[in-house]
C-alpha cells in the first residue's frame, strides 16, 4: 500500500511539469485567444489600453461576411481535398512499386522521402521560380519556358497568377497543390511501405492461387488491411494542409484576388501587419475548430477501439 | 606542473583582458541603440556613413546598430512593436512620419515630444514645415525627418517610347492613349510587380491625388473630404482603365522585377516610388539619359512623401545619447551624408544641391514648392488597419473590375479605420 502511494507520487511528480506547461502554454493561451477574439482590439490604441469591451461574436460575424475570408475557406477546402487525394494516390502507387523490390528500390525510396526533410519555405521559394509564368507569349519563364522549348506551347498558362475559378475552385491553387504533393507524397509512401512489408505474403499468394487479379488483391486485401494506416495518414495530411502557411507565404502570398490565400496567411496579416488583434484571434480560433473537426472524431474512434 | 602553469597563465590573461575591456567601456559615455530596417543596398551604406559621422562628433558614445531585415520594414515594425509594448524600447528608431508614428506610438503615449530640442538646436525652421507637421500631435513635434522619397512618380524608358513614337503624356487621357499605342506595338505598356500588394495601392493613391487634388486628398485624413466623394470613384475608374495595360504576370513579381522589365526594354512606363531611381542606377542607367521621369499625370504640384524619421521613445535607456543622435541627423551635414548614398532627398531645405544627381535635384525643387501629401501605402496617411484593408480592396478590384464594389469597400474601410 505504501509502495503504491509512493509510486503514484513519483508519477505525479514526473508528469506535473508537462501538465503545468500544457495548461499554461496550450490551454491557457487558447482561452486567451478566445477572449481576445471577443474583444474590440482591432486598433493599436485599444490594444494598448487593454480595454475590456466585449463585442461577443461580432468579429466572427464580420469575418464570415468578408469576401476574403470566404475565398479562404473555399481555398482550404479544395486545397485539403486535392492535397490528400494526390498524396495518397501517388504515395500508394510508389509504395506498391517499391514493394516489389525493383532494382535501385532503396535509392528511390530515399529519394522520394527527401522532400519531407526540406522546410516548406525552401519548397515554396523553389516552386515559385518554377511556376512563375513570365510574360506570355514572348517571354515565358520557368516551366512555361520548358514547355516552349519542347514545343508544347498550348500547355502554357498563368499558373499561380491565374484568376480563373471553377465551382469556387481557384485554378491558381493547382501550382501550390503540386508543390505540396511533391513534398508529402513520400510520407504516405513510407507509411504504406512499412505496412506492406508487415503483411503476411501467404495471404497474397493464396489469393493469387485463387485467381485474383492484381487490382482485386489491392482493393480486396491490401487496402482493407492498410485502412488504419491510410486513416492516420489522412489525419496528418489534413492538419498539414491547414498549416500550409509557410508554403503559401513563401510561394505565392495571398495572390491576385486572394486566389491562393488561406486563413493562416490572413491571420498573420491581420494580426501583425494591420494591428487587428481581435480579427486575427478570431481566425485562429476558427482554424483551431477546423483542426478539431478533423481530429476529434479520429480520437474518439481510437479510444473506442482500445 | 607545466599544464597547471599554462592554465594559470591563461586565466590571468583572461582576467586582465576583462579588466581592460571593462575599463575601456568605463572611459566611454555609454551607448546608443539605433533601430532600423536599413539593410539593403544604398541604405545600409548610408546608415554606416551616418554612424561614422556620429562617431566623429561623439567618439565616446558607442552606436549599437540594431537592424531587422526583410519585408520592406514590416518585420522590423513587428519587432519594434513588441519591444515598445514590452517596455524595452531602443534609444531611437526609424519610423515613417505621419500616422505610422502618431497613430501607433504618440497617441498611445509612448513618445517624448522634441519640439524644445528642435528649437534649441535652431533647426526647426530649416525643415520643410509641412513635413514636420506630419509628425506632430496636439502642437508638439515627435520626430526628426531624415530623408524624403516621392511616391507619385512615373519613369519611362526613353528608347522604347521613341521607337513607338510615343510622347511623354501630359494628362490622364494622353497617358491612356500612350498606353494603348504601346500595347498595340506589342510591348508591355506599364510594368507592375504587385506580389506584395502595396505597389498597386501606390498607383491608386497617386490617382486619388490626380482626381481629388492635394487639398481634397489631404482632407480624406483630417475629415474635410468625405470618403464618398465622386472623385474617389473617378480615381477607381482611371485605375481600372490603366490596369488593362499592365503585364499579365504582375502578381508574380516584386517592384524590382517590374523596374527591371522596363530596364530590359520590355516595357514603356513604370510607376514606382523614387527609390526605383536608385535601383536603375545600380542597373547601370544614368538619370535623364536612358530613362526619363514625370509625376503621375495630373498629380503635378503634389509631392506624395514617404519620410523616414527618428524619434525619442519614453523610457529609452540612454536618452541623452539619443538626443545626440537626433541632433546629428537633424544637421545639414547629417542629411547631406545620408541622402546622396541612400538615393533620397533631405527633409531640410538648405541642403547642398551639388551632392545630388539630376533626378534628385529636380525632386528637391518640387519638394520645396509642391503641396505635400502623405502616402497611404507607406503608412503616413492612415492607420495600419486601413492600409491592409485598402490593399485587399485594390487587390480584389484589379481582378473583378467592379468599381461600385471597390468604392463601397473604400468607404466602409474609411469609416471603420480612419474616423
Automatic annotation (TrEMBL), chain A:
User: Would I find Cell membrane among this entry's keywords?
Assistant: yes
Tell me the ranges covered by the ABC transmembrane type-1 domain, including all copies: 73-300
Q: Name one GO biological process term.
A: transmembrane transport
UniProt superkingdom: Bacteria
User: Where does the record locate the signal sequence feature?
Assistant: none
Keywords from UniProt, A to Z, are: Cell membrane, Membrane, Transmembrane, Transmembrane helix, Transport
Listed under GO cellular component are:
plasma membrane
InterPro entries listed in its UniProt record: ABC_transporter_permease, MetI-like, MetI-like_sf
Protein localization: Cell membrane
Q: Does the keyword Cell membrane apply?
A: yes
**What's the protein's topology in the membrane?**
Multi-pass membrane protein
User: Principal place where this protein is found?
Assistant: membrane
Segments passing through the bilayer: 12-30, 77-99, 111-130, 157-182, 229-251, 277-300
The record's comment on protein family reads: Belongs to the binding-protein-dependent transport system permease family.
PANTHER family the UniProt entry points to: ABC TRANSPORTER PERMEASE PROTEIN (PTHR30193:SF42)
- Protein name (Swiss-Prot/TrEMBL): Carbohydrate ABC transporter membrane protein 1 (CUT1 family)
TrEMBL record, chain B:
**Keywords of this protein's UniProt record, alphabetized?**
Signal, Transport
Its predominant location is other
Would the keyword Transport turn up in this protein's UniProt record? yes
Task: Please state where this protein is localized.
Answer: Cell envelope
Q: Which domain of life is it from?
A: Bacteria
- GO annotations of cellular component type: cell envelope
Is-annotated flag, keyword Signal? yes
Q: Which family does it belong to?
A: Belongs to the bacterial solute-binding protein 1 family.
Q: What does this protein do?
A: Part of a binding-protein-dependent transport system for a sugar.
Write down what this protein is called: Probable sugar-binding periplasmic protein
Amino acid at each position: 500500500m505504501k509502495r503504491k502511494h509512493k509510486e503514484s507520487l513519483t508519477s505525479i511528480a514526473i508528469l506535473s511539469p508537462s501538465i503545468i506547461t500544457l495548461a499554461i502554454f496550450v490551454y491557457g493561451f487558447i482561452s486567451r485567444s478566445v477572449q481576445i477574439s471577443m474583444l474590440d482590439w482591432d486598433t493599436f490604441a485599444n490594444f494598448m489600453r487593454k480595454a475590456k469591451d466585449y463585442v461577443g461574436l461580432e468579429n466572427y460575424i464580420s469575418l464570415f461576411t468578408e469576401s476574403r475570408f470566404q475565398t479562404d475557406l473555399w481555398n482550404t477546402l479544395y486545397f485539403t481535398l486535392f492535397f490528400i487525394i494526390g498524396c495518397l494516390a501517388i504515395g500508394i502507387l510508389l509504395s506498391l512499386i517499391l514493394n516489389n523490390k525493383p532494382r535501385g528500390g532503396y535509392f528511390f525510396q530515399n529519394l522520394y522521402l527527401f522532400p519531407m526533410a526540406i522546410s516548406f519555405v525552401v519548397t515554396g521559394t523553389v516552386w515559385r521560380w518554377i511556376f512563375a509564368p513570365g510574360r506570355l507569349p514572348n517571354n515565358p519563364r520557368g516551366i512555361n519556358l520548358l514547355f516552349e522549348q519542347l514545343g508544347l506551347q498550348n500547355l502554357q498558362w498563368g499558373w499561380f497568377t491565374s484568376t480563373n475559378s471553377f465551382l469556387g475552385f481557384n485554378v491558381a491553387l493547382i501550382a501550390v497543390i503540386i508543390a505540396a504533393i511533391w513534398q508529402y507524397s513520400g510520407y504516405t509512401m513510407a507509411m504504406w511501405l512499412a505496412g506492406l512489408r508487415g503483411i503476411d505474403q501467404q495471404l497474397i499468394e493464396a489469393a493469387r492461387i485463387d485467381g485474383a487479379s492484381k487490382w482485386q488483391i489491392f482493393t480486396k486485401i491490401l487496402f482493407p488491411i492498410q485502412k488504419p494506416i491510410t486513416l492516420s495518414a489522412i489525419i496528418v495530411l489534413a492538419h498539414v494542409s491547414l498549416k500550409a502557411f509557410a508554403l503559401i507565404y513563401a510561394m505565392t502570398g495571398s495572390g491576385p484576388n486572394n486566389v491562393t490565400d488561406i486563413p493562416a496567411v490572413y491571420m498573420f496579416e491581420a494580426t501583425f501587419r494591420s494591428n487587428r488583434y481581435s480579427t486575427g484571434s478570431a481566425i485562429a480560433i476558427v482554424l483551431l475548430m477546423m483542426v478539431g473537426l478533423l481530429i476529434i472524431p479520429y480520437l474518439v474512434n481510437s479510444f473506442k477501439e482500445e | 606542473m607545466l599544464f597547471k602553469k599554462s592554465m594559470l597563465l591563461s586565466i590571468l590573461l583572461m582576467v586582465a583582458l576583462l579588466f581592460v575591456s571593462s575599463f575601456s567601456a568605463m572611459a566611454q559615455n555609454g551607448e546608443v541603440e539605433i533601430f532600423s530596417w536599413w539593410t539593403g543596398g544604398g541604405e545600409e551604406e548610408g546608415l554606416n556613413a551616418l554612424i561614422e559621422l556620429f562617431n566623429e562628433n561623439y567618439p565616446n558614445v558607442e552606436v549599437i546598430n540594431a537592424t531587422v531585415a526583410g519585408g520592406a520594414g514590416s518585420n522590423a515594425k513587428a519587432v519594434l512593436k513588441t519591444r515598445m509594448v514590452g517596455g524595452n524600447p531602443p534609444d531611437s528608431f526609424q519610423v515613417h512620419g505621419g500616422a505610422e508614428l502618431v497613430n501607433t506610438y504618440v497617441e498611445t503615449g509612448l513618445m517624448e515630444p522634441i519640439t524644445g530640442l528642435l528649437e534649441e538646436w535652431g533647426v526647426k525652421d530649416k525643415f520643410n514645415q509641412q513635413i514636420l507637421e506630419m509628425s506632430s500631435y496636439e502642437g508638439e513635434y515627435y520626430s526628426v525627418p531624415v530623408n524624403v522619397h516621392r511616391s507619385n512618380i512615373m519613369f519611362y524608358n526613353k528608347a522604347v517610347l521613341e521607337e513607338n513614337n510615343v510622347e511623354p503624356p501630359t494628362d490622364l487621357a494622353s497617358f491612356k492613349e500612350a498606353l494603348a499605342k504601346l500595347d498595340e506595338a506589342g510591348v508591355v505598356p506599364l510594368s507592375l510587380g504587385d506580389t506584395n500588394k502595396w505597389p498597386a495601392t501606390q498607383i491608386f493613391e497617386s490617382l486619388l491625388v490626380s482626381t481629388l487634388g492635394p487639398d481634397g486628398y489631404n482632407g480624406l485624413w483630417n475629415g474635410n473630404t468625405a470618403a464618398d466623394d465622386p472623385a474617389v470613384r473617378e480615381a477607381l475608374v482611371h485605375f481600372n482603365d490603366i490596369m488593362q495595360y499592365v503585364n499579365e504576370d504582375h502578381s508574380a513579381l516584386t517592384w524590382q522585377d517590374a523596374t527591371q522589365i522596363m530596364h530590359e526594354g520590355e516595357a514603356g512606363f513604370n510607376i514606382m516610388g523614387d527609390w526605383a531611381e536608385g535601383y536603375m542606377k545600380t542597373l547601370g542607367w544614368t538619370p535623364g539619359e536612358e530613362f526619363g521621369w514625370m509625376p503621375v499625370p495630373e498629380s503635378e504640384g503634389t509631392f506624395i512623401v514617404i519620410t523616414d524619421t527618428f524619434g525619442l521613445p519614453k523610457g529609452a535607456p540612454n536618452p541623452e545619447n539619443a538626443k545626440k543622435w537626433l541632433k546629428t541627423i537633424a544637421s545639414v551635414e547629417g542629411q547631406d551624408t545620408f541622402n546622396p548614398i541612400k538615393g533620397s532627398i533631405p527633409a531640410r531645405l538648405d541642403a547642398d544641391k551639388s551632392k545630388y544627381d539630376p533626378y534628385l535635384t529636380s525632386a528637391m525643387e518640387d519638394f520645396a514648392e509642391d503641396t505635400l501629401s502623405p502616402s497611404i501605402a507607406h503608412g503616413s496617411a492612415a492607420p495600419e488597419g486601413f492600409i491592409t484593408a485598402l490593399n485587399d480592396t485594390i487587390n480584389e478590384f484589379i481582378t473583378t473590375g467592379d468599381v461600385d464594389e471597390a468604392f463601397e469597400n473604400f468607404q466602409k474601410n474609411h469609416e471603420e479605420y480612419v474616423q
